[in-house]
Amino acid sequence: MARARKHNQNVIVDYISFICFGVLVVTGVLLHWRLPHGSHNATLLGFSRHQWGDIHFWVAMVFIVGIIVHLLLHVPWIKSTMSPKRGVKQRYTLLIFLMTVYTILLFFLGVFLSPIIK
Q1: Are the CB atoms for 45 and 30 separated by under 8 Å?
Q2: How far apart are CA 114 and CA 63, in angstroms?
Protein backbone atom coordinates (compact mmCIF):
# COMPACT_ATOMS: atom_id res chain seq x y z
CA MET A 1 0.00 0.00 0.00
CA ALA A 2 2.73 2.47 0.95
CA ARG A 3 4.66 1.59 -2.19
CA ALA A 4 1.64 2.36 -4.39
CA ARG A 5 1.14 5.68 -2.63
CA LYS A 6 4.81 6.58 -3.14
CA HIS A 7 4.51 5.64 -6.82
CA ASN A 8 1.47 7.90 -7.14
CA GLN A 9 3.38 10.73 -5.46
CA ASN A 10 6.24 10.22 -7.91
CA VAL A 11 3.88 10.31 -10.87
CA ILE A 12 2.19 13.49 -9.66
CA VAL A 13 5.49 15.26 -8.93
CA ASP A 14 6.91 14.16 -12.29
CA TYR A 15 3.85 15.36 -14.22
CA ILE A 16 3.86 18.72 -12.47
CA SER A 17 7.59 19.10 -13.12
CA PHE A 18 7.16 18.15 -16.77
CA ILE A 19 4.33 20.66 -17.24
CA CYS A 20 6.38 23.36 -15.51
CA PHE A 21 9.33 22.58 -17.78
CA GLY A 22 7.12 22.95 -20.85
CA VAL A 23 5.72 26.26 -19.59
CA LEU A 24 9.26 27.47 -18.87
CA VAL A 25 10.34 26.67 -22.42
CA VAL A 26 7.32 28.41 -23.94
CA THR A 27 7.56 31.53 -21.77
CA GLY A 28 11.33 31.68 -22.27
CA VAL A 29 10.90 31.58 -26.04
CA LEU A 30 8.17 34.23 -25.83
CA LEU A 31 10.34 36.49 -23.73
CA HIS A 32 13.41 36.05 -25.90
CA TRP A 33 11.98 36.26 -29.41
CA ARG A 34 8.41 37.57 -29.27
CA LEU A 35 8.71 40.17 -26.49
CA PRO A 36 12.41 41.10 -26.38
CA HIS A 37 13.90 43.97 -24.37
CA GLY A 38 12.64 47.26 -25.70
CA SER A 39 9.33 45.88 -26.98
CA HIS A 40 7.72 48.75 -25.02
CA ASN A 41 3.93 48.38 -24.74
CA ALA A 42 3.69 45.16 -26.73
CA THR A 43 1.45 42.49 -25.27
CA LEU A 44 0.76 38.87 -26.06
CA LEU A 45 -2.54 37.34 -24.97
CA GLY A 46 -3.10 40.44 -22.86
CA PHE A 47 0.14 40.09 -20.89
CA SER A 48 3.10 42.46 -21.10
CA ARG A 49 6.74 41.38 -21.10
CA HIS A 50 6.98 41.94 -17.34
CA GLN A 51 3.85 39.91 -16.63
CA TRP A 52 5.22 37.04 -18.75
CA GLY A 53 8.47 37.37 -16.83
CA ASP A 54 6.59 37.04 -13.54
CA ILE A 55 4.82 33.92 -14.81
CA HIS A 56 8.17 32.52 -15.97
CA PHE A 57 9.76 33.20 -12.58
CA TRP A 58 7.01 31.63 -10.46
CA VAL A 59 6.72 28.57 -12.67
CA ALA A 60 10.50 28.18 -12.29
CA MET A 61 10.10 28.26 -8.50
CA VAL A 62 7.45 25.51 -8.66
CA PHE A 63 9.74 23.52 -10.98
CA ILE A 64 12.67 23.80 -8.56
CA VAL A 65 10.49 22.66 -5.66
CA GLY A 66 9.28 19.76 -7.83
CA ILE A 67 12.85 18.69 -8.56
CA ILE A 68 13.75 18.87 -4.87
CA VAL A 69 10.69 16.77 -3.92
CA HIS A 70 11.56 14.32 -6.70
CA LEU A 71 15.07 13.90 -5.30
CA LEU A 72 13.72 13.49 -1.76
CA LEU A 73 11.34 10.77 -2.93
CA HIS A 74 14.31 8.95 -4.46
CA VAL A 75 16.61 9.10 -1.41
CA PRO A 76 16.31 5.33 -0.80
CA TRP A 77 17.37 4.63 -4.38
CA ILE A 78 20.30 7.05 -4.10
CA LYS A 79 21.40 5.41 -0.83
CA SER A 80 21.15 1.91 -2.30
CA THR A 81 23.13 2.95 -5.35
CA MET A 82 25.83 4.43 -3.14
CA SER A 83 26.06 1.27 -1.00
CA PRO A 84 29.41 -0.52 -0.84
CA LYS A 85 27.80 -3.59 -2.40
CA ARG A 86 27.67 -1.78 -5.72
CA GLY A 87 30.59 -1.65 -8.06
CA VAL A 88 33.05 1.23 -7.89
CA LYS A 89 32.16 2.34 -11.42
CA GLN A 90 28.46 2.72 -10.53
CA ARG A 91 29.29 4.72 -7.40
CA TYR A 92 31.60 7.06 -9.31
CA THR A 93 28.98 7.54 -12.02
CA LEU A 94 26.35 8.44 -9.45
CA LEU A 95 28.77 10.68 -7.59
CA ILE A 96 29.58 12.59 -10.78
CA PHE A 97 25.87 12.91 -11.54
CA LEU A 98 25.05 14.21 -8.05
CA MET A 99 27.96 16.66 -8.15
CA THR A 100 26.69 17.95 -11.50
CA VAL A 101 23.20 18.47 -10.08
CA TYR A 102 24.68 20.16 -7.02
CA THR A 103 26.80 22.49 -9.19
CA ILE A 104 23.80 23.43 -11.34
CA LEU A 105 21.71 24.15 -8.24
CA LEU A 106 24.49 26.31 -6.78
CA PHE A 107 24.76 28.21 -10.06
CA PHE A 108 21.05 28.97 -10.14
CA LEU A 109 20.98 29.90 -6.46
CA GLY A 110 23.87 32.28 -7.14
CA VAL A 111 21.92 33.86 -9.98
CA PHE A 112 18.83 34.30 -7.82
CA LEU A 113 20.66 35.50 -4.71
CA SER A 114 23.20 37.83 -6.35
CA PRO A 115 22.55 41.54 -5.92
CA ILE A 116 21.21 43.54 -8.84
CA ILE A 117 23.53 46.37 -9.84
CA LYS A 118 21.98 49.25 -11.74
Answers
A1: no
A2: 20
Sequence-separated (6 or more) residues with CB below 8 Å from residue 4: none
Indicate if the pLDDT at residue 19 is higher than 70.
yes
Mark out the alpha helices in the chain (DSSP H runs): 2-29, 49-73, 75-81, 88-113
Helix (H, G, I), strand (E, B), or coil: what is residue 98?
helix
In contact, 30 and 52? CB cutoff 8 Å: yes
Neighbour count for residue 60 (Cβ, 10 Å): 18
Q: What are the backbone angles phi and psi of residue 44, rounded to the nearest 5°? A: -135, 120
Q: Where are the strands (E) in the chain, listed by range?
A: 43-44, 47-48
Report pTM. 0.66
Residue 105 burial (CB count, 10 A): 14
